[in-house]
Write a structure and sequence with these properties.
- This protein is an alpha/beta fold and 118 residues long.
- The chain has one domain: Glutaredoxin, CATH 3.40.30.
- Helix content is 42%, strand content 25%.
- It has helices at residues 8-17, 33-52, 67-72, 97-110, and strands at 2-4, 22-28, 56-62, 80-85, 88-93.
- A 5-stranded mixed sheet has the order 1-3-2-4-5.
- Strand 4 and strand 5 form a beta hairpin.
- The two termini are 15 Å apart.
Length: 118
């Protein structure tokens, strides 16, 4: 399941109760065609990974609705995906669902979670 956050306060509230190890965050915009295209893949990948482990969370925000999050995550273009885990994080910018899936899998495995089938 993908959780939509609309502010830094909502983001902090989510993380206050999150017990997992990895969080993926999608920054997009309603007007962005590539965002819509890869957004469907993001939803599907979230479902697939969440079926395997509860250690991973999926969030999203619209840069027009949450400019504070755009600044926090240093989003200069959309779509942008961020991965946060205990020892760091990484970023993927692009609209290829295949590349997104490979990037997600790499980050999940890097965090020490059993390899998902994505």
């Amino acid at each position: 399941m993908v959780v939509t956050v609309r502010s830094e306060t909502e983001l902090r509230g989510f993380f206050a109760g999150f017990q997992g190890q990895v969080a993926f965050i999608k920054a997009s915009a309603r007007w962005c065609g590539p965002c819509q295209q890869v957004g469907e893949g993001y939803e599907r990948l979230a479902e697939e990974i969440c079926a395997v482990t509860r250690e991973v969370a999926f969030l999203q925000f619209d840069v027009d609705d949450a400019p504070d999050l755009q600044i926090i995550f240093r989003v200069a273009s959309v779509p942008t995906f961020c991965c946060m885990f205990q020892d760091g994080g990484s970023r993927y910018q692009g609209s290829s669902t295949r590349e997104l899936a490979a990037w997600m899998k790499l980050n999940v495995v890097s965090a020490g979670i059993t390899s998902p089938s994505a």
